[in-house]
Write a structure and sequence with these properties.
Blueprint lengths: L6 H7 L4 E6 L2 E6 L6 E2 L2 H16 L5 E5 L6 E2 L14 H21 L4 E5 L7 H4 L3 E5 L3 E2 L14 H9 L1 H10 L3 E2 H7 L4 E3 L1 H15 L4 H35 L6 H6 L2 H4 L4
Parallel strand pairs: 2-4, 3-5, 4-6, 6-7, 7-10
Antiparallel strand pairs: 1-2, 8-9
Helix pairs in contact: 2-3, 3-9, 5-6
């Protein structure tokens, strides 16, 4: 009978996007592109759903730490929209719908162990760090949602995270205005649990992971099930609707999003060195 993919195989399989290390059951997944901040593209989005499935099916993983490389969480790449979405083949549009869902759904539904998000700087798709059980971030990190400012309904999961963490009114204000939430405000609002100098983030994450590992395995797994259940309900109830609204608008958008997004591209890369 086929069993789960082993760490040695999937860590090698995804090494160009996710550098993985594991010690005493603690798995660190560090996103990267050629050793620098992860540069998002469609291949990356596809890989997300697959990597969460493989990580979640490995019984030797007991706590997962998710982080980025350098001083950016990941780099948004508006140039992926060089071809207008309305001109994509219909089959590819359907694939993108499923891949967009799996990117965050598989993280929540497939991973049954405690998770720690270590947001090492400003960047796109930061909601994945806040979907973790515990989230810490670097000083100087800024959180924002640029979809509406770029002429796109916000359906990729950022507003879903804001609604469930900040509440519906604050989430709506952030969605419409694209306002920055700095690290201290994120701490005050409950978006993150701790703010630390960047060089202290991973040591603190490992400290937390080792503390979590002190509890029996049943306690760890079932506590994760309890604290992640809110996200499971939110994804089941709302994420498909939100994503469909975004993709429907893009499918009838004759102008295309690239030109609009390029005007605000520097917001994603303002801290790039």
């Amino acid at each position: 009978m086929a069993g789960p993919t082993r760490f040695e195989k999937y860590s090698e399989k995804y090494k160009d996007l996710f550098f993985m290390t594991r010690r005493d059951g603690i798995l660190e997944v560090r996103m990267h592109t050629r050793g620098g901040p992860l540069q998002f593209d469609w291949a990356t989005q596809t890989a997300y759903g697959n990597v969460w499935s493989d990580v979640g099916r490995d019984p030797e993983n007991e706590v997962m730490i998710l982080t980025g490389t350098g001083d950016l969480w990941q780099i948004g790449n508006p140039e992926v929209w060089t071809t207008k979405f309305m001109d994509w083949p219909n089959n590819r549009k359907l694939e993108l719908y499923h891949e967009s869902l799996r990117m965050i759904e598989n993280m929540i539904y497939c991973i049954d162990i405690p998770t720690i998000g270590v947001i090492n700087g400003t960047g796109s798709h930061w909601q994945m760090g806040t979907l973790c059980d515990i989230t810490i971030c670097a000083e100087g990190t800024e959180f924002f949602d640029a979809h509406y400012l770029g002429g796109v309904p916000p359906g990729d999961g950022i507003v879903l995270a804001l609604q469930n963490i900040l509440g519906i009114k604050k989430a709506a204000f952030c969605a419409y205005t694209g306002m920055n939430i700095n690290a201290q405000a994120a701490l005050d609002l409950g978006l993150v649990s701790e703010v630390l100098p960047r060089e202290k983030l991973l040591p603190r994450a490992w400290e937390l992971a080792e503390m979590i590992m002190q509890a029996p395995r049943f306690v760890r797994h079932l506590t994760h099930s309890i604290v992640s259940h809110t996200w499971k309900k939110a994804l089941a109830n709302d994420q498909g609707l939100q994503l469909t609204h975004q993709l429907y608008d893009m499918a009838i958008d004759e102008e295309g999003v690239l030109e609009r997004l390029m005007k605000i591209k520097e917001r994603f890369q303002r801290n790039e060195r």
